[in-house]
TrEMBL record:
Region of the whole protein represented: 474 to 670 of 887
Domain of life assignment: Eukaryota
Protein name as it appears in the record: UMP-CMP kinase
Function statement: Catalyzes the phosphorylation of pyrimidine nucleoside monophosphates at the expense of ATP. Plays an important role in de novo pyrimidine nucleotide biosynthesis. Has preference for UMP and CMP as phosphate acceptors.
Residues that, per the record, bind ATP: G16, A17, G18, K19, G20, T21, R134, Q179
Signal peptide: none
Quaternary structure and partners: Monomer.
Family, as annotated: Belongs to the adenylate kinase family. UMP-CMP kinase subfamily.
Location in or out of the cell: Cytoplasm; Nucleus
Record lineage: Eukaryota, Sar, Alveolata, Dinophyceae, Suessiales
Annotated segments matching region NMPbind: 36-66
Binding positions (a ribonucleoside 5'-phosphate): R42, K64, L65, V66, G93, F94, P95, R96, R140, R151
Annotated region described as LID, given as residue ranges: 133-143
Ranges that cross the membrane: none
Domain notes: Consists of three domains, a large central CORE domain and two small peripheral domains, NMPbind and LID, which undergo movements during catalysis. The LID domain closes over the site of phosphoryl transfer upon ATP binding. Assembling and dissambling the active center during each catalytic cycle provides an effective means to prevent ATP hydrolysis.
Length: 197
Protein backbone atom coordinates (compact mmCIF):
# COMPACT_ATOMS: atom_id res chain seq x y z
CA UNK A 1 0.00 0.00 0.00
CA UNK A 2 1.01 3.57 -0.69
CA UNK A 3 1.57 5.46 2.53
CA UNK A 4 3.06 8.76 1.51
CA UNK A 5 3.56 8.59 -2.25
CA UNK A 6 1.68 10.89 -4.61
CA UNK A 7 -2.05 10.74 -5.15
CA UNK A 8 -3.61 11.18 -8.54
CA UNK A 9 -6.95 12.05 -10.08
CA UNK A 10 -7.20 11.04 -13.73
CA UNK A 11 -9.18 13.54 -15.81
CA UNK A 12 -10.62 12.00 -18.96
CA UNK A 13 -13.01 13.06 -21.70
CA UNK A 14 -13.00 13.55 -25.46
CA UNK A 15 -11.09 16.20 -27.38
CA UNK A 16 -12.32 19.65 -26.42
CA UNK A 17 -14.35 18.32 -23.48
CA UNK A 18 -13.03 21.09 -21.22
CA UNK A 19 -10.46 19.05 -19.27
CA UNK A 20 -7.77 21.73 -19.35
CA UNK A 21 -10.18 24.54 -18.48
CA UNK A 22 -11.50 22.76 -15.41
CA UNK A 23 -8.11 21.39 -14.31
CA UNK A 24 -6.77 24.94 -14.10
CA UNK A 25 -9.58 25.82 -11.71
CA UNK A 26 -9.22 22.66 -9.64
CA UNK A 27 -5.48 23.27 -9.31
CA UNK A 28 -6.00 26.88 -8.15
CA UNK A 29 -8.79 26.05 -5.74
CA UNK A 30 -7.82 22.70 -4.27
CA UNK A 31 -4.03 22.76 -4.40
CA UNK A 32 -3.39 20.14 -7.03
CA UNK A 33 -0.63 20.18 -9.61
CA UNK A 34 -2.08 20.00 -13.11
CA UNK A 35 -0.23 17.74 -15.54
CA UNK A 36 -1.70 17.64 -19.04
CA UNK A 37 -0.19 14.74 -20.98
CA UNK A 38 -0.91 16.60 -24.23
CA UNK A 39 0.83 19.76 -22.98
CA UNK A 40 3.85 17.72 -21.84
CA UNK A 41 4.06 16.11 -25.28
CA UNK A 42 3.78 19.49 -27.03
CA UNK A 43 6.55 20.88 -24.79
CA UNK A 44 8.75 17.90 -25.54
CA UNK A 45 8.07 18.36 -29.26
CA UNK A 46 9.43 21.91 -29.16
CA UNK A 47 12.29 21.23 -26.76
CA UNK A 48 15.63 21.78 -28.41
CA UNK A 49 17.50 18.54 -28.89
CA UNK A 50 14.45 16.35 -28.38
CA UNK A 51 14.77 13.08 -30.25
CA UNK A 52 10.99 12.70 -30.35
CA UNK A 53 9.93 16.03 -31.88
CA UNK A 54 9.10 14.72 -35.35
CA UNK A 55 7.37 11.63 -34.09
CA UNK A 56 5.19 13.49 -31.58
CA UNK A 57 4.16 15.98 -34.23
CA UNK A 58 3.08 13.25 -36.60
CA UNK A 59 1.03 11.38 -34.02
CA UNK A 60 -0.72 14.51 -32.73
CA UNK A 61 -1.68 15.67 -36.21
CA UNK A 62 -3.08 12.22 -36.95
CA UNK A 63 -4.97 12.10 -33.67
CA UNK A 64 -3.08 8.93 -32.76
CA UNK A 65 -1.59 7.99 -29.43
CA UNK A 66 2.11 8.62 -28.97
CA UNK A 67 3.97 5.47 -27.76
CA UNK A 68 3.32 5.24 -24.03
CA UNK A 69 7.01 4.96 -23.13
CA UNK A 70 7.41 8.61 -24.13
CA UNK A 71 4.30 9.90 -22.38
CA UNK A 72 4.94 8.02 -19.16
CA UNK A 73 8.53 9.23 -19.01
CA UNK A 74 7.34 12.85 -19.28
CA UNK A 75 4.61 12.33 -16.67
CA UNK A 76 6.96 10.69 -14.19
CA UNK A 77 9.60 13.37 -14.75
CA UNK A 78 7.03 16.08 -14.05
CA UNK A 79 5.87 14.36 -10.87
CA UNK A 80 9.44 14.00 -9.62
CA UNK A 81 10.13 17.64 -10.42
CA UNK A 82 7.11 18.95 -8.52
CA UNK A 83 7.66 16.59 -5.62
CA UNK A 84 6.97 12.92 -5.33
CA UNK A 85 6.20 12.36 -1.64
CA UNK A 86 2.74 13.58 -0.76
CA UNK A 87 2.22 15.25 -4.16
CA UNK A 88 -1.34 15.68 -5.42
CA UNK A 89 -1.69 15.49 -9.17
CA UNK A 90 -4.39 15.94 -11.77
CA UNK A 91 -3.35 13.80 -14.69
CA UNK A 92 -5.26 15.33 -17.61
CA UNK A 93 -5.80 13.33 -20.79
CA UNK A 94 -4.11 10.10 -19.70
CA UNK A 95 -4.47 7.06 -19.77
CA UNK A 96 -6.30 7.01 -23.12
CA UNK A 97 -5.85 3.35 -24.16
CA UNK A 98 -5.30 -0.06 -22.59
CA UNK A 99 -1.70 0.23 -23.74
CA UNK A 100 -1.38 3.56 -21.88
CA UNK A 101 -2.76 1.84 -18.81
CA UNK A 102 -0.26 -0.99 -19.12
CA UNK A 103 2.57 1.56 -19.34
CA UNK A 104 1.29 3.34 -16.26
CA UNK A 105 1.01 0.10 -14.30
CA UNK A 106 4.50 -1.02 -15.31
CA UNK A 107 6.30 2.22 -14.50
CA UNK A 108 4.19 3.83 -11.79
CA UNK A 109 1.73 1.17 -10.68
CA UNK A 110 1.09 1.00 -6.96
CA UNK A 111 3.69 3.61 -6.02
CA UNK A 112 0.85 6.11 -6.57
CA UNK A 113 -2.70 6.14 -5.25
CA UNK A 114 -5.39 6.77 -7.87
CA UNK A 115 -8.21 8.46 -5.97
CA UNK A 116 -10.82 8.57 -8.73
CA UNK A 117 -11.42 9.38 -12.38
CA UNK A 118 -13.20 12.56 -13.37
CA UNK A 119 -14.93 11.91 -16.68
CA UNK A 120 -16.24 14.74 -18.85
CA UNK A 121 -19.14 13.49 -20.92
CA UNK A 122 -20.60 15.40 -23.90
CA UNK A 123 -21.61 15.04 -27.55
CA UNK A 124 -19.21 15.08 -30.47
CA UNK A 125 -21.20 17.98 -31.94
CA UNK A 126 -20.36 20.17 -28.96
CA UNK A 127 -16.72 19.07 -28.86
CA UNK A 128 -16.33 19.76 -32.57
CA UNK A 129 -17.87 23.23 -32.28
CA UNK A 130 -15.55 24.12 -29.39
CA UNK A 131 -12.45 22.87 -31.15
CA UNK A 132 -13.28 24.59 -34.44
CA UNK A 133 -13.81 27.83 -32.56
CA UNK A 134 -10.55 27.42 -30.64
CA UNK A 135 -8.77 26.50 -33.89
CA UNK A 136 -9.22 30.05 -35.16
CA UNK A 137 -6.55 31.20 -32.71
CA UNK A 138 -4.97 28.20 -30.93
CA UNK A 139 -2.28 27.39 -33.46
CA UNK A 140 -2.67 23.73 -32.47
CA UNK A 141 -1.76 21.38 -35.30
CA UNK A 142 -4.78 19.19 -34.50
CA UNK A 143 -7.53 21.84 -34.27
CA UNK A 144 -8.74 21.34 -37.85
CA UNK A 145 -11.69 19.28 -39.05
CA UNK A 146 -9.60 16.46 -40.47
CA UNK A 147 -7.55 15.96 -37.28
CA UNK A 148 -10.62 16.45 -35.05
CA UNK A 149 -12.44 13.58 -36.81
CA UNK A 150 -9.40 11.35 -36.28
CA UNK A 151 -9.22 12.33 -32.60
CA UNK A 152 -12.88 11.30 -32.21
CA UNK A 153 -12.20 7.86 -33.69
CA UNK A 154 -9.24 7.30 -31.36
CA UNK A 155 -11.29 8.46 -28.41
CA UNK A 156 -14.17 6.09 -29.17
CA UNK A 157 -12.03 3.09 -30.08
CA UNK A 158 -9.22 3.37 -27.54
CA UNK A 159 -10.10 5.74 -24.72
CA UNK A 160 -13.74 4.90 -23.96
CA UNK A 161 -12.89 1.26 -23.12
CA UNK A 162 -10.49 2.57 -20.46
CA UNK A 163 -13.22 4.78 -18.99
CA UNK A 164 -15.50 1.74 -18.98
CA UNK A 165 -12.89 -0.32 -17.15
CA UNK A 166 -12.50 2.36 -14.46
CA UNK A 167 -16.28 2.56 -14.27
CA UNK A 168 -16.53 -1.15 -13.50
CA UNK A 169 -14.06 -0.59 -10.66
CA UNK A 170 -16.33 2.11 -9.25
CA UNK A 171 -13.76 4.84 -9.81
CA UNK A 172 -15.58 7.08 -12.31
CA UNK A 173 -17.28 10.34 -11.41
CA UNK A 174 -19.15 11.52 -14.47
CA UNK A 175 -19.63 15.20 -15.22
CA UNK A 176 -22.13 16.58 -17.72
CA UNK A 177 -19.67 18.63 -19.76
CA UNK A 178 -22.30 19.80 -22.22
CA UNK A 179 -23.10 22.69 -19.87
CA UNK A 180 -21.49 26.12 -19.62
CA UNK A 181 -18.01 26.29 -18.09
CA UNK A 182 -19.54 27.83 -14.92
CA UNK A 183 -22.07 25.04 -14.54
CA UNK A 184 -19.45 22.39 -15.17
CA UNK A 185 -17.25 23.98 -12.51
CA UNK A 186 -20.09 23.88 -10.01
CA UNK A 187 -20.43 20.13 -10.58
CA UNK A 188 -16.68 19.52 -10.62
CA UNK A 189 -16.16 21.19 -7.23
CA UNK A 190 -18.47 18.72 -5.53
CA UNK A 191 -15.87 16.04 -6.15
CA UNK A 192 -13.11 17.81 -4.27
CA UNK A 193 -12.70 19.28 -0.82
CA UNK A 194 -12.38 17.72 2.63
CA UNK A 195 -14.91 14.92 2.22
CA UNK A 196 -13.12 13.22 -0.67
CA UNK A 197 -9.47 13.43 0.44
N1 LIG B 1 -14.52 25.38 -23.42
C1 LIG B 1 -14.12 24.63 -22.36
N2 LIG B 1 -15.17 24.33 -21.57
C2 LIG B 1 -16.26 24.89 -22.15
C3 LIG B 1 -17.66 24.91 -21.82
N3 LIG B 1 -18.14 24.29 -20.73
N4 LIG B 1 -18.51 25.55 -22.64
C4 LIG B 1 -18.03 26.18 -23.77
N5 LIG B 1 -16.74 26.21 -24.14
C5 LIG B 1 -15.85 25.56 -23.33
O1 LIG B 1 -11.44 23.38 -23.97
C6 LIG B 1 -11.55 23.33 -25.36
C7 LIG B 1 -12.18 24.64 -25.86
O2 LIG B 1 -13.51 24.73 -25.38
C8 LIG B 1 -11.46 25.89 -25.33
O3 LIG B 1 -11.49 26.86 -26.31
C9 LIG B 1 -12.29 26.28 -24.11
O4 LIG B 1 -12.23 27.65 -23.85
C10 LIG B 1 -13.68 25.86 -24.53
P1 LIG B 1 -10.22 22.70 -23.18
O5 LIG B 1 -10.38 23.00 -21.74
O6 LIG B 1 -8.94 23.02 -23.83
O7 LIG B 1 -10.60 21.16 -23.44
P2 LIG B 1 -9.68 19.86 -23.39
O8 LIG B 1 -10.57 18.75 -22.99
O9 LIG B 1 -8.47 20.10 -22.56
O10 LIG B 1 -9.33 19.77 -24.94
P3 LIG B 1 -8.01 19.28 -25.66
O11 LIG B 1 -8.09 19.76 -27.05
O12 LIG B 1 -6.81 19.61 -24.87
O13 LIG B 1 -8.27 17.71 -25.60
P4 LIG B 1 -7.49 16.54 -26.21
O14 LIG B 1 -7.73 15.44 -25.27
O15 LIG B 1 -7.84 16.29 -27.63
O16 LIG B 1 -5.99 17.08 -26.27
P5 LIG B 1 -4.66 16.65 -25.50
O17 LIG B 1 -3.81 17.83 -25.45
O18 LIG B 1 -4.99 15.95 -24.26
O19 LIG B 1 -4.05 15.60 -26.52
C11 LIG B 1 -3.69 16.01 -27.82
C12 LIG B 1 -3.05 14.85 -28.56
O20 LIG B 1 -1.85 14.47 -27.91
C13 LIG B 1 -3.86 13.57 -28.64
O21 LIG B 1 -4.81 13.60 -29.69
C14 LIG B 1 -2.76 12.56 -28.90
O22 LIG B 1 -2.33 12.60 -30.23
C15 LIG B 1 -1.65 13.09 -28.03
N6 LIG B 1 -1.65 12.46 -26.69
C16 LIG B 1 -1.11 11.18 -26.58
O23 LIG B 1 -0.67 10.60 -27.56
N7 LIG B 1 -1.09 10.59 -25.34
C17 LIG B 1 -1.57 11.20 -24.23
O24 LIG B 1 -1.50 10.60 -23.16
C18 LIG B 1 -2.12 12.49 -24.35
C19 LIG B 1 -2.16 13.09 -25.59
MG1 LIG C 1 -6.37 19.89 -22.92
Amino acid sequence: QVLFGPSVVFVLGGPGAGKGTQCTKIAETFGYTHLSAGDLLREERSREGSEYGELINRYIKDGKLVPVEITIKLLKQAMMKHGWEGGRYLVDGFPRSFDNLRGWEEVIGNTVRVKFVLFFDLSEETMQARLMERGKTSGRADDNLESIKKRFVTFQQESMPVVEKFHLKGLVRRINAEQSAEQVWRDVQRNFGPSVI
